[in-house]
Amino acid sequence: MLEIIAMVSGMLVMILEMTGARVMAPHLGTSIIVWTSLIGVVLACLALGAWLGGRLADREASTRQLALILAWAGGGMGLTALLHEPVAAWVTTSVFNPYLAAVLCASLLFGLPATSFGMVTPYVIRLAMTDVSTSGQVVGRLYALSTLGSIVGTFLGGFVLISWFGSTHILLAGSTVMLLLSVLVCMRPVRGRACLLVLVALAAWLSESWTRFQEKNGGVISVETPYNHIRIARTMNMHGRELLYLSTDPGRFQSAMYVDDPVELALSYTRLYALGPLLAPRAQRVLMLGGGGYSVPKWLLAGRSGLKTDKMRVDVVEIDPGMTRVAKEYFQLPEDERLRVFHEDVRVFCNRNTEQYDLVFVDVFGSSYTVPFHAGTVEAAAAMRRAVADDGILLMNVIASAEGEAANLLWSIRNGLAEHFAEVHVLAVQEPDNASVIQNFMLLALPHPRPGVLAADELASYRERLMPSGPDVAPLRDEFAPVERYALPLALSDY
């Protein structure tokens, strides 16, 4: 029984940590700040728990006490399941430093269960140790089983649970398992822990009922996928038009759709992709790196771009199959033989791709602030260049500023593209007259020189968005790509 407890507790610790990232993402994002805070807090609490568990075991080594520790761990997971929404919302509205907010949120939500889990292993070791001469074997066996459980929990959480179940349900299930173990370890007294089990079951029912109520009444819809915690909701823009938007990070739309016109480009930065068809009016082969809500592919296939659509082929590379399902279910992505979807990493796709495209559109933010580091390097630019036909166009969305602390990300990616493309221009989307504002920028990359590429009268609105040369920032490389450091000013700007 003690071996089972060691293994199960090790498994649930990893599931708790992986689920924690999903719990915090809607409120604090998925930046390196969040991950660092979560891992640091959990490790600190595990260390504290190990110290407390060792001291407690030397004072009173009993199955009854072990049962209480297991109940604390289960109860802590249950409290996290019930309270993560209001606690995280309170932290983000009360604490305006992103570092402090992330650490505080992780501490409040995961401090109790992580500390309780940390107490389990030393206490189990103390109960299992009956002979000093075999203490090494006992310690080694139980730590090995705990580590094995952590390995199982990592793969189970990443490959199965998060892909199929919501964060709240995963936490409630973990809570139930620990409470059942507590009861099995010590049947007496069982009343308090039985009540906790009833409460967990009631909480699971209430959680499911509340989710269905929100969806039925037009509230926020939450969807868990292998890669994202997606929120879908409706809002009105400044012109009074109703929008359905998709968000994976707080405070920003990753995609949006007009309810009254699903194929119209609703976000300002997506409308700059219209520059591609203007510069390549005979384009038929289009590659979109990053699907999101599939607004640009829908726009292309519906014929709104001005390109001929009868022989058009649009290939979309989207790493998250759950994102594609959301686009079909909520954002009216049609089944279309002209559309091919590849569910894989954009860099992996580009590395093995042998086809060339007239237009390549890139929109691959891993969070609101950063592109995946391996998608913005010189080596990635080389792979993208191979995908662009000699008379083709590449357009890449980047969130940054053109000058100041937040400019490094933009210019490092731009300079990386410039090593493989003959011309690379930077166009500001929202405020071209204010280079220091954090906003969307569109990188226009041309395989061969095209003097006066934006000189035509019909391109005047694009020409006015051109940014002058920026700082001489070294391009990102696979060997060294500090995108998180470059993106920190963007994260801080939201606080």
Structure commentary:
The chain is an alpha/beta fold and about 500 residues long. The chain folds into 2 domains: about 1-215, Growth Hormone, Chain: A, CATH 1.20.1250; about 260-490, Vaccinia Virus protein VP39 (Rossmann fold), CATH 3.40.50. The chain is built from 16 helices and 11 strands. The strands form 2 sheets. The protein has a 7-stranded mixed beta sheet with strand order 7-6-5-8-9-11-10, sandwiched between helices. A 4-stranded antiparallel beta sheet has the order 1-2-3-4, with helices on both faces. Helix 1 (about 1-30) packs antiparallel against helix 4, helix 4 crosses helix 5 (about 135-165) and helix 13 (about 380-385) crosses helix 14. It is elongated and about 85 Å long. It starts with a helix and ends with a helix. About 50% of the residues are buried.
Given the structure, what is the number of helices?
16
Runs in which pLDDT lies below 50 for 5 or more consecutive residues are none
Radius of gyration: 26 Å
CATH superfamily of the largest domain: Vaccinia Virus protein VP39
Overall, the morphology is elongated
Q: Largest beta sheet: what is the strand line-up?
A: 7-6-5-8-9-11-10
Amino-to-carboxy terminus distance: 49 Å
What's the CATH architecture name of the largest domain? 3-Layer(aba) Sandwich
Structural class: alpha/beta
Q: How many strand elements?
A: 11
CATH top level label of the largest domain:
Alpha Beta
Strand composition percent: 5-15%
Main beta sheet: 7 strands, mixed
Q: What's the mean pLDDT score?
A: 87
**CATH fold group of the largest domain:** Rossmann fold
In which range does the helix fraction lie?
40-55%
Order of helical and strand elements: HHHHHHHEEEEHHEHEHEHEHEHEEHH
The total tally of domains equals 2
